[in-house]
Amino acid sequence: MPPFKDEHVLIISPGSQTTLAQLGLPESFTPARLRIPTRMFPAEKRGEWEPIKVRERRTTKATSRDALHGHSGGDVVMGEANGINGDGQNVDGDQEDEILYEEDPTNEEGAVYPLRDGRVADWSCFFALLTHIYNTLSPPFHTPILVISQPTWTSQDHETLTQFFFEKFKTPAFCLMDSALAACYAFATSTATVVDVGFGKCDVSTITDFAINDPGRAVGLLNCGGEAMTQRLLELLGGKGFTRDMCEQLKKNPICEVLPQGAELPVEVEAGNPAAAASTGVIGSGDGQRGSITAQGAVPRGPGPNTQAGDADEEREFKDGEDDEGVLDVATIVASGKTSEFLARKEREKAERAAARKKDAADAAAASKERALPNSKRTKAVFHFHERRPLEDLNSNGKRATDGESGQDGAETKRQKTPEPGVQNEAQAAEIAAAVRKEERKEERRRNKEGTAFIRKTVEVGPERLQAASGGILDRIADAVHRSVLAVPEVNKRSDLWDSLIIVGNGSKVKGFKEALLATLTARYLISPSSATIFSSELPSNFTTPVATGANTPQPQHHASHHGPGVNPLLLAATTASNANLAPPGQSQPQLHQQLQQQQYYQQQQQHHQHSSHAQTPTSIKVLKMPDYFPEWKDIGTEEAGFLGAQVAAKVVFVVDQGLSKGFMSRTEYNEMGPQGIHESCL
Amino acid sequence: MATGQASTKPPDANEYGGDEISALVLDPGYSTVRAGFAGEDVPKSVVPSYYGVIPTDSGNKILFGDNSIHTPLPRISIRNVMSKEGTVEDWDTAANLWEYAITSRLTNAKPGPLAYNGLNDTENDDVKMEGVEEQEKPLRDNPILMTETGWNAGKDRERGIEIAMESWGSPAYWLARNGVLTSFAAGKSSALVVDLGASSISITPVHDGLILKKGVARSPLAGNFISQQIRLMFSQSQPPIPLTPHYLVASKTPVDAGTPSQATLRTFAPNTEPDHSFRLFQEERVLTEFKESVVAVWPGPGRLSGHAQSGGTNMDIARQHPGKPFEMPDGWNQMFGAQDRYRPIEALFDPKMALSDADNPQPSASQTVGALIQSSLSQVDVDIRPALLAAVVVTGGSSLYQGFTDRLNQELNLIYPGVRVRINASGNAVERKFGSWIGGSILASLGTFHQMWISKKEYDEQGPGIIEKRCK
User: Fold this and answer.
1) Would the CB atoms of B285 and A486 count as touching at under 8 Å?
2) Where is the signal peptide, in residue numbers (chain B) (predicted)?
């Protein structure tokens, strides 16, 4: 078997919402080049699938330039359908009552998501998606494939996938890599607690020395992913006219934040609006919180927040009206003979307007004052969102149905274009791709002018936006982390696991989520240094217990403590500080203290600055930092770090050792052992 | 005898799928159910034997698995499918629980009909196979090896094969004693297996791979008993030590040792509080942590209640040993002196040291580990006793206390002076916890074991009674 090359390696990372894929390993590992939604649309023939929604439309006259001409029956096949979109095919306009098929990349209606909560819910659809990805990237024949597997997949799922890849694509080598392990590779660590917050579920895995601890692994925690947060927002805001789609956009907006446990929600203080103040109420920390918020939702609010400020068209109309204000039909006024009366009225109006303006200015000042506060302290924030306009409206006007905002969705679907067959050269392909993209951008700009499927709207959101995770999701994840770490049989490894927490998955992208999870873990599970250890443990029993007079209390000198203020500083100094800094300022009880200090010094030397003799964990909880070898990943965040790990693993497994360490399953092995062989050689 | 021949003649390949089988090993215990594929070194799926029940208007909703039973849902109560004896009590729920353990991580029904699953891309689609879509049985392709305790008897032995064959559609089945499997895992065909589980300690003499049924001895002084001892120790100390599980704590503040905690506790609206059994179950998690980090076995010499050679009692010596601090979920913390650390487990060796109250009577002298081994050995042939004592295999999660094997060795040397006693206990906590599952994994993956399976055909011919004939 010839050796595998970097540029031939295919990596696929299926997720419940988005699937990442990439052909070729670049010099410096980049974020995934292909991101497509994990969904397919049922085609006309049962068991066949389309990557993009194809709509059927009856028209009396085919005016749409892009409408597909008379594709009848099931011959709209995937690859073909892809290429046709946007090519500007002209349809003869003289046919009557014709069924038209057109692609609608922004429509999600009827989409089937083959992965639900990480599990494969629809194999046929999932296979179609994998085939679609494969065809999109069109790898050469000698392509090894690495697939990141979800922890929820069963052993049998692994076999089914292996069989599919070997028999459908005739791949020479195949590797399944667990997503938690992939995250470990990305963070360059052999031991970690990986919290993978996905769309519908969350997985918590503990990994020691690259081995996943299966017993105690919290796989597929339901209602702990991004969707749970959207649903929570919908629950809170649903009564105020928010739709699910709006909540989804709100969740992704930076004004939506997850506050650490116990943090107080901002309270409206404007005295001028007693209704609002009453409605917000005084929100206590801890338990009462949830109750008071539901109560709050029921109270009617002032007209301020949650009133929609219309769309662009309305705004324009409004502006026009303002412009007209100054223009008067002087002739009519003079002719009517009531000039003085008119002038007096005009004066009055002007004064009123001035007063109003003054009030506006005061309001604006208050608003700007609030704007100076960080988002989490503000009671309300302006939220811009996009609303989908029903397509029929647009189409009936003869406008192009597409995503006007263009943004990511458009680009994503566009990129799925099948490259022209026969293009072998990478550079050439890249060139073509660049050209295609340029073309696409032009097209999008043109469409934006023409009309859009999305309308930009603005609405004010209250403190609900800070409560996306208030439905208990943090508690559930924290409990799962605690449970998983405590299920690791080697008690001495647990401390390391607490110190190397990795939080990945796009569900954790919500601003403040990771910090809040860490805060929850710390608040609930962190063991404070016990004040018992310092006075009684490991000291000879003939020692009298020193009385804490306060005079000799040494101050901790150069370490910032992350423990709460309630802990005795002497204790902290003794259990966590590095030695030698303990010299007390006064020497009133020199002998006893010297002995004590020597004793403590000795203990510290032995315990490497850990809390003395705690076998219980965690005495500290830390989040790992991803090493910054790869500049492309710096700004992108660590949510999709698993894909980086997969590239690292693919490089090692396929290219560097070429199968010496049995990191993948080769075709020969598959022929000998069948799909079951995957269990012996997958990461 | 027809059946005797059947076990020596290899069955036809199509009866169990030939050599390429992916057999499952299912090892139910009081605290967890271990399931996984034969040939692997650790069970992939470890599911608690406890399950949650939520009363609803339309009957009880049942929750399985760690992910769902630790959330304080309204009115949730926690039950266990096993009886305190370590045998299955609630067969219907147990069957569902086991199926959950297998299908959640190991195997599931096959993907859709072949015509549509994309594996065979065929051009003609005129064959519509509507009938195939019905739910296939979960274990259609997997022979299953189940374990049972040494004292499992009667009809209970036949229930397993009925579930496997009837509801799971398994092609083959085998039932093995967990003591025998543990000795296999330790690489011995003859051994005295000392198994410290959650509900019971059991002693199983194994000779040439066969269980010596007369010699099986057991007592309830195991994990749950030690938990009960710790609870008694907490409640009898002055002042009583509060035991608050994690789910009740909303937030905690660090406090000095021994002072009352200043935690904010979670409150539940009336009629939504979890059942008391839920609280006990969650307290058990704290106790497990306490056992792992504080409790240890008195290292000797002699018993904790005895007298040291240098004069003074062992208790006095123990007081000079270092203590261990422990913090409760609500922030309460204390240094537990050595006497407290040794006390809860000492009753396994010395019943006089057990804490007791009205509900928890003192154990009898015949229930200690030493006495159990003695009574077990007295039931087996005198010739094989030395061989068994030279291969004492210690397994089970409750044997992982610091210093347990050393102390057991001392005890056995006191009982059998002059006999060579060798304790065989894996240093690996995984191997110790899942000893019998690992033995099952080894057994089921042996090529020579394939002819042992009871196939579906044999079951159909002879019914569940075949277990008594084949699985001795």
Assistant:
1) yes
2) none
